[in-house]
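Review box. Two proteins, two foldings.
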Amino acid sequence: MRIVTTIADVRTAVRDAKSAGRAVSFVPTMGALHGGHASLLHRARKEGSFVVASIFVNPLQFNDPNDLAAYPRTAEADEALCKSAGVDLVWRPTAETIYPADFDTRVEPGKLAAGLEGLHRPGHFGGMATVVLKLLNVVTPDVAFFGLKDFQQFAIVRRMVRDLDVPVKIVGCPTVREEDGLAMSSRNAKLSPESRMLAAHLSRVIHAAARAMRSGERADRARDLAFSDLSSQSAIEIEYLEVVDRDSLLPVVDEPTANAVVLVAAVVGGIRLIDNVEVVPRDKDSS
């Protein structure tokens, strides 16, 4: 496994791999890697013979400087996980490499970024889309993998790639969960033991809503019952709990449930968590 920092080194390594007839798989990350990231890297290993992972804490995604400063940096552990997952090339660019002093171009996502996380984290998706496009342009992978824990992010990246004719296949990979159902996240380590137990309730509630819809319950009724359940927990501060169409991200009321996703964002013990579940899971591959 090689670790590089420059754009030139990435392009040279990828060019050599493609010249040798190897397909290139890419997993962009912000570090603080955990089992969810490992699942993406293993999937990339299966799909392509040359695996690239980027580790870059993107400042444009943070609307709060304190959150950026507090984001965990675990370089040694991240590199060890990448090596064990069979990654060929780890790219660790600096902020100056990605955003030179005269950098003045941004990607502005459209309607898909307007609600949900977009309402609570102004500018987040613009920063995310900007860095993802730049990373894709440097790595030029055949296929790139994104976790579905942030379903809205996946939907925005998929739409951006389609709308801007970026020649890459985008694949969404299922959320990896702890034994009690809590979605794996770098934020989980910040939860107190009491909050950790309560956080798992987010997963139970949205899965219950999805089961209810599969059994014929209206989406709005299932959503209201789930909201009521979480609201009964005084230590959980709900930011949103919605049932939306997985392509448009618009609210679903009583339409057929096959394309619906239940999404939640909440603060538990001072830690903000997100999760989602598709009512009827399907193959996530998208070109």
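Next protein.
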Amino acid sequence: MKAVGLVTEYNPFHNGHMLHLQKSMELSGADVSVAVMSGDFVQRGEPAVMDKYTRARIAVDCGVNLVVELPVKFALANAEQFATGAVFTLNALGVDSMCFGSESGSVRELDYIADVLANESDLYQLALKKELRSGASFPLARENAIGTMNIMDRELLHDILSSPNNILAIEYLKAAKRHACPITPYTFKRAGMGYNDLFTAQNADSEYASAEALRNEIKRYCLAMEDLASDIGNEDTDYYDSMIFETNDILQNIIKYIPEAAQDTFLGEMDKNMPVYKEDFNGVFNAKLKKILRDCSYDRRKAAEVLLKYDGFNPNLANRVMNKYDKYYDLDEFIDLLNDKSSTYTAISRALFKFILGHKKNTRSLVDGTDIENEAFDEDIENMLDNYKYTDISYVRILALDDKGMEYLGGIRKTATVPFITKTAGYGEVLSDDIYASDLYNLAVWEVFEETLPDEFHRGVYIKGKGFTGTV
């Protein structure tokens, strides 16, 4: 069976994801679709609005044949590490091709850039180091260094590297080249709203909403529901009726972008187990930071040195955290306080969630512990670039599948180089980071909704038409 790979978050699954699935099958001529999906935490540096098992179930109900989990250390990483983990996973699953949406819509254009980044010629590295020494941010330094290679018009290069899906697409191509993964790439031009676009009067009728717009609408709906609940018994019936109408209008605006096969599950989860947001981790973040301060006898310099042991932290960020932390903070508020030209909002958010989840720079890290996207230039930049290496994945975690996905797994299992995990029991050590991430996510659900989600040892795999396999 020919398989096409999809790299996804499904946060939440919407009509644009259905288009991705359809285009992938059409362009690749594949028999089966395999999605590698971020778990309970996503690449933006925040929790997913809905737990990973429900998102995987919705994807399979909508036609994806097999959904596996991208390990949390890859999922909660910069674009390069995220893409590498996804390509490694798809390669371990024996996919023939992968397909992704991009603003460019041209594999050829994206491939030119990926070639430069995968090969890292002496000329390119020299240009990159020169740009970094001049004080340019890493994204700008990289763009200017690629520009010196004269592979395309500078304006076109800037347009390509200014678009988030293009950047991820280049990283997929680069990872496949650098690690000799025999995966044929396909891309199609994204339709509808842009990656970060929100609803406006101009795009309100777009057939495809961005996931960011939907997440904001979900939050607006939940706030409206809270207001509605607080006004029960209000004597102004006209006002109360208008609030009901507004709330229903928001919900209908969300649902029209959700595929029909997903709507019942989506509505069943709304206000029961979802949505989960960054602020739902304020308590655990403040508690963990306070513990570091206590363990360091409230010596902020020593506390910054402890923070530096966590993935995503450089000396500048670690010191800023400890120098600015003077009260209990909302995570969004604190990230805004920390944000400066040396690091992006998303990079800071990822670092804080890696801290929350306990991801330290050690031998189990994905790379040497340095997050280039979040690193200011210093005298060690040459060593940092020379030693920027990856380890491979050691397992594939199955979340959901249908009969065709089951048939595909059966066909490749004998030749697989890593275990395909369907039962958590017996894999506690190798899955420890993913289990802990899920436990913290489930704790947030319990605190917000007073609902207890099954833990990693009691959920099992979702099989279309049969449900979850239960205790594992």
